[in-house]
Design a protein that fits this description.
disordered C terminus, two-stranded antiparallel ribbon, alpha+beta, 6 strands, disordered N terminus, 11 helices, 323 residues
Length: 323
């Protein structure tokens, strides 16, 4: 007859999170992580409920995030805590180029990121470019030093759920999981903004070939080897571009498109992604009211109706015409 010692109770855990049934994820990003964990990551759904329960006992220690991995110590029934590592698929260099381009294409979101904020719309920007910021199937690989063969075990599942708390505090950790931290990400965005500004100012436009040497007034003198230099391209005017198009078309230039008519009624302001900071003195309702008033005034101007500023412009135009 075999005899087994009675199971010992789990030792008190070192976790900084107090026990309780508070939902995981207090912010949009924390909740989005939990939703991705339960709906898209395709982990064992029979183990996730045990992980939720275990996470609420305070057994999970401090969670660390680095490029491609999430780590934590979890106190089980043994004296020595278990080591949990959750590997996360990182982006390739090509995916990072697409990511930076997608983020830089939305000026408002890029400005928020450079200001240290991460609006929820960033996830949609990347999804439009076929980049998943939140984990999908096969991108999370939990591992634990416990003897449980399940994947994930309850210890690893608990760590996965508590990642939502870390994202509540710093959603930029999602980019670190994918391979690049906040500073590297923002440096890439600043570089793209600087490049775009250079192009807009004519400093970074495609160059034109020229000669260096006697023909270009260089110091090499006559008979020197031809070299390639680059000079800013000044471009062409709109009139010149249209004339070129007319010259290459068989039947002449197509008609200029008509200016679209304004909408039949003013548009409605969009819903704010995040509320204004507490204590700023600005409320979401006041911002929406301001946006609605601006839309109404713009609509009136587009339709030629009386609005503040339009009558002044009209009277000034009449004065100039009469004189």
């Amino acid at each position: 007859m075999s005899w087994w010692p009675p199971p010992s109770k789990r030792l008190p855990g070192p976790g900084p999170r107090r026990a309780g049934r508070r939902p995981f994820g207090a912010t949009w990003w924390g909740k989005a992580w939990v939703d991705a964990l339960e709906q898209r990551a395709e982990l064992d759904r029979n183990r996730l409920p045990r992980g939720r329960t275990y996470a609420r006992t305070g057994a999970v220690g401090e969670i660390g995030v680095r490029a491609g991995a999430i780590m934590a110590s979890v106190q089980g029934s043994r004296a020595k805590p278990y080591k949990v590592t959750v590997k996360v698929r990182t982006y390739s260099d090509q995916e990072w180029d697409i990511t930076l381009a997608a983020l830089a294409s939305r000026v408002g979101h890029m400005a928020a990121l450079l200001d240290g904020e991460m609006p929820p719309g960033v996830a949609d920007d990347l999804a439009t470019a076929n980049i998943d910021l939140l984990p999908v199937a096969g991108e999370l690989q939990p591992r634990c030093s416990c003897p449980d063969w399940a994947n994930p075990c309850k210890h690893a599942a608990a760590v996965c759920y508590l990642v939502a708390d870390t994202l509540d505090a710093d959603p930029f950790l999602l980019f670190l999981m994918r391979g690049r931290g906040r500073d590297t990400l923002l440096a890439g965005l600043r570089a793209r903004r600087a490049a775009a500004s250079a192009v807009a100012n004519g400093d970074g436009r495609p160059g034109t070939r020229g000669r260096r040497g006697a023909d270009a007034g260089g110091a090499d003198g006559p008979g020197t080897e031809e070299a390639t230099v680059w000079a800013p391209d000044t471009g062409v005017t709109a009139r010149e571009a249209w004339a070129r198009w007319a010259a290459v078309t068989a039947q002449g230039a197509p008609p200029v498109p008509a200016i679209p008519l304004p909408p039949p009624k003013p548009g409605r302001p969009t819903v704010l992604a995040v509320d204004p900071p507490p204590g700023s003195g600005v409320t979401s309702a006041s911002l929406l009211q301001l946006a609605a008033d601006a839309a109404q005034r713009a609509w009136e101007l587009a339709h030629g109706e009386s609005a503040a500023g339009f009558e002044i412009y009209s009277s000034s135009a009449r004065t100039v015409k009469e004189s």
